[in-house]
């Protein structure tokens, strides 16, 4: 291709050629041409050595060759920029990435005569990497700056005079904005001491003084309004700037304060407090530990904790530590500790885990409380309780003896009164007998009540649960009270029994005698305080309990007295009200019995309208008797025919024997008498006996010794215990001893006959 005049000039001018080759920057000249495809291309006219080095080619591989063939990865948009420069004459400067040489190049393109451009190239790859790294570092710094938990301010030092200086806030991070509860725009360009009052002008001057000397400055401030503590740190940035960091240390400070308080409490505690490592060695020791055990801290720290225990060795302590390591707290373990002098002291030991800041258990805290005083008081209380129980038992024994001694003469009094009722026709005399009988029964009831109260107090009240048909019991109670109310002149009062289902057999497991006693007391009271109207009793069935009720239309009770009616000897007596006799023990006994059976009792009442007493008992719907004994054999109280039979009566009280003999005369039996136990055994040995009636408390040999002797000889002889011991457990005791029946004094002719008939019928059966 023919070269133009200008091309020749460029090539031939040695001065420019020398300059051209010595340029540090790459330099090449191209002339635009139209190729065979009628597209614009360019001939590389000249390229200096620097450019050849940049593209990694030799001059003869560049000069005189077509641009697009040399740079096959050329960018069309960049080539078009070269063309625009030639046409417009306006230079083009840009940073471009060259895919061909994998470098970042700075291009400076200028028009170089008609149809030509000169291109200056600078390899800026390293510079770009450095700038990129700088930008990345700045980005990281800004990211760190913006996400720091501590508040940060960059402050410019203003020196008005050598002694008068202040600081202007130049920049703040978001954490400082949060601390101040202000935006950056409200803080920047303001004096630090103005926008941040806790950092006053005096403190700012101290920061400037330290940072100007190239030193850091640290201090702690308290923000009273916010009740917060801050850690301030200032460090120099340059001679005119310093950085201040602000960190909220309230939690740490308060935790430290709490730790100091806790340490103070531990040291001043009256309880021994020490810590133990996980391998069982003592690590810390408070003052109380020193006082209690007698060891000084330097003597005991590092020793095995078992040195302090009398009954716990190392392995037992390690077992406890193992439980604590599971996160458990062991409280009030009772054991014996040893002092330095070998004294044994009872203590409560509590063990708790000690956690580090990561929540890991690193040790065990032991708190030891001396319970010598507690143990001493416990022993005193036990002795007092034993003394009280013994006194109560003596009282009960005394009352039982009184009961026995009263029942013995009352046996003959009421017995002869019962006998005379059938032999006296004079109506006035019969009334006298009825008075004797009622007064005697009141006296017996009083003794029974006092005995029950005493036994409730001592816990000696025996509960004997059995399964029975509840409806049958209630029907029996109703039948008995119908006769009582008619005899007592209250036949006009309606009396009803209300059952959930009168045809259904409702079985319950509880103490039959005590339940009967409760209902007897409540029904008796209802009739006692009811002048007209009605008395109702019954029960309702719920899921797991029965609720009994006794309702009357009697005189009622004022609301203010309802909370007292179950107290002992409490009798509510209104003014101008009829005086009702009684000890005031009935409801108290009833309450004790209900609670003993696992229930509750209460009362609703309205003065002048009547009262309703309620009580509950546990109920199991699955209770069934082993055999259905709900249909009981009725035993008549007719005089039994004992003609030709011999009855042995062992009785040391002559009046009681006389009464029994008179009662038994209609039976036609032969009566033999023994005033003591030995005589009774002699008579039994020497005479044929068909029925024996033995008192329990007899001279020489008691009733239990006699029955033991008889049962060795004869297993089937009917033997009845007739005794002034009337308690349920005494009855059971006599039956267990071999008696066929237990007849409690005072005895009436009807109870005597029915008991004999029952015993003889059972024997025949």
Tell me briefly what this model is.
This protein is α+β, with helices and mostly antiparallel strands and 765 residues long. The chain has 24 helices and 27 strands. The strands form six sheets. Strands 2-1-5-4-3 form a five-stranded antiparallel sheet. The chain has a five-stranded antiparallel sheet with strand order 7-6-10-9-8, with helices on both faces. The protein has a five-stranded antiparallel sheet with strand order 12-11-15-14-13.
List the helices and strands and how they pair.
Elements (H helix, E strand, L loop, with lengths): L4 H8 L1 H9 L3 E9 L5 E8 L1 H7 L11 H4 L5 H13 L3 E7 L4 E9 L4 E8 L1 H23 L3 E9 L5 E8 L1 H7 L3 H4 L4 H4 L5 H12 L4 E7 L4 E11 L2 E8 L1 H19 L3 E5 L5 E4 L1 H7 L3 H4 L13 H11 L5 E9 L5 E12 L5 E10 L1 H50 L5 H32 L7 E4 H18 L6 E5 L8 E4 L1 H17 L5 E8 L3 E8 L33 H11 L4 E6 L3 E9 L27 E5 L3 H11 L5 E5 L2 H10 L4 E4 L8 H11 L5 E5 L4 H10 L3 E4 L4 H16 L1
Parallel strand pairs: 17-19, 23-24, 23-25, 25-26, 26-27
Antiparallel strand pairs: 1-2, 1-5, 3-4, 4-5, 6-7, 6-10, 8-9, 9-10, 11-12, 11-15, 13-14, 14-15, 16-18, 19-20, 20-22, 21-22
């Amino acid at each position: 291709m023919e070269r133009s005049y200008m091309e020749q000039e460029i090539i031939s001018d040695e001065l420019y050629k020398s300059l051209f080759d010595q340029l540090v920057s790459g330099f090449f000249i191209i002339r635009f041409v139209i190729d065979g495809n009628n597209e614009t291309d360019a001939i590389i006219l000249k390229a200096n050595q620097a450019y050849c080095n940049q593209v990694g080619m030799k001059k003869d591989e560049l000069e005189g060759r077509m641009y697009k063939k040399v740079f096959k990865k050329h960018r069309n948009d960049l080539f078009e920029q070269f063309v625009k420069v030639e046409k417009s004459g306006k230079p083009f400067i840009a940073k471009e990435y060259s895919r061909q040489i994998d470098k970042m190049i700075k291009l400076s393109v200028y028009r170089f005569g008609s149809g030509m451009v000169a291109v200056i190239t600078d390899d800026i790859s390293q510079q770009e990497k450095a700038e990129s790294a700088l930008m990345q570092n700045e980005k990281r710094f800004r990211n760190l700056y913006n996400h720091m938990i501590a508040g940060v301010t960059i402050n410019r030092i203003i020196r008005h005079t050598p002694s008068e200086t202040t600081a202007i806030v130049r920049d703040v991070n978001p954490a400082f904005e949060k601390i101040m509860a202000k935006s950056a725009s409200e803080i920047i360009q303001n004096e630090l001491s103005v926008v941040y009052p806790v950092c006053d002008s005096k403190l700012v001057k101290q920061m400037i003084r330290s940072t100007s000397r190239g030193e850091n400055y640290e201090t702690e401030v308290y923000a009273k309004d916010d009740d917060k503590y801050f850690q301030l740190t200032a460090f120099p940035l340059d001679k005119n700037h310093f950085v201040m960091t602000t960190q909220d240390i309230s939690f740490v400070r308060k935790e430290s304060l709490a730790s100091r308080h806790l340490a103070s409490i531990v040291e001043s505690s009256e309880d021994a407090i020490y810590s133990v490592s996980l391998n069982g060695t003592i690590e810390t020791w408070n003052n109380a530990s020193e006082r209690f055990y007698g060891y000084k801290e330097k003597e005991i720290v590092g020793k095995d904790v078992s040195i302090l225990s009398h009954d716990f060795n190392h392995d037992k302590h390690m077992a406890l530590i193992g439980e604590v390591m599971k996160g458990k707290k062991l409280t009030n373990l009772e054991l014996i500790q040893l002092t330095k002098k070998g004294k044994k002291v009872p203590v409560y030991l509590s063990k708790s885990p000690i956690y580090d800041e990561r929540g890991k258990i690193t040790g065990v805290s032991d708190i030891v409380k001396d319970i010598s005083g507690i143990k001493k008081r416990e022993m005193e209380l036990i002795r007092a309780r034993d003394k009280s129980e013994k006194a109560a038992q003596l009282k009960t024994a005394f009352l039982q003896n009184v009961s026995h001694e009263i029942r013995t003469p009352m046996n003959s009094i009421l017995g002869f009164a019962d006998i005379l009722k059938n032999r006296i026709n004079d109506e006035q005399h019969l009334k006298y007998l009825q008075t004797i009988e009622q007064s005697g029964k009141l006296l017996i009831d009083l003794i029974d009540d006092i005995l029950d109260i005493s036994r409730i107090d001592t816990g000696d009240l025996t509960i004997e649960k059995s399964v029975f048909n509840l409806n049958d019991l209630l029907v029996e109670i109703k039948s008995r009270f119908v006769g009582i109310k008619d005899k007592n002149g209250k036949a006009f009062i309606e009396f009803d029994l209300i059952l959930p289902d009168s045809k259904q057999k409702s079985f319950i497991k509880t103490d039959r005698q005590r339940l009967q006693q409760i209902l007897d007391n409540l029904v008796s009271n209802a009739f006692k305080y009811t002048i007209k109207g009605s008395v109702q009793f019954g029960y309702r069935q719920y899921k797991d309990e029965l609720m009994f009720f006794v309702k009357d239309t009697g005189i009622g009770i004022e609301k203010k007295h309802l909370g007292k009616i179950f107290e002992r000897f409490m009798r509510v007596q209104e003014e101008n009200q009829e005086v009702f006799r009684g000890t005031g023990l009935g409801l108290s006994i009833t309450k004790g019995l209900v609670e003993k059976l696992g229930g509750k009792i209460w009362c609703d009442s309205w003065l002048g309208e009547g009262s309703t007493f309620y009580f509950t008992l546990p109920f199991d719907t699955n209770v069934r008797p082993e055999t259905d004994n709900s249909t009981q054999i009725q035993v008549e109280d007719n005089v039994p025919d004992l003609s030709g039979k011999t009855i042995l009566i062992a009785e040391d009280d002559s009046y009681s024997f006389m009464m029994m003999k008179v009662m038994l005369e209609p039976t036609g039996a032969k009566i033999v008498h023994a005033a003591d136990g030995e005589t009774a055994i002699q008579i039994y040995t020497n005479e044929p006996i068909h029925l024996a009636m033995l008192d329990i408390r007899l001279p020489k040999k008691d009733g239990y010794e006699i029955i033991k002797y008889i049962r060795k000889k004869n297993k089937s002889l009917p033997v009845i215990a007739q005794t002034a011991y009337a308690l349920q457990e005494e009855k059971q005791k006599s039956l267990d001893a071999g008696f066929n029946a237990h007849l409690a004094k005072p005895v009436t002719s009807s109870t005597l006959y029915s008991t004999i008939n029952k015993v003889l019928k059972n024997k025949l059966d």
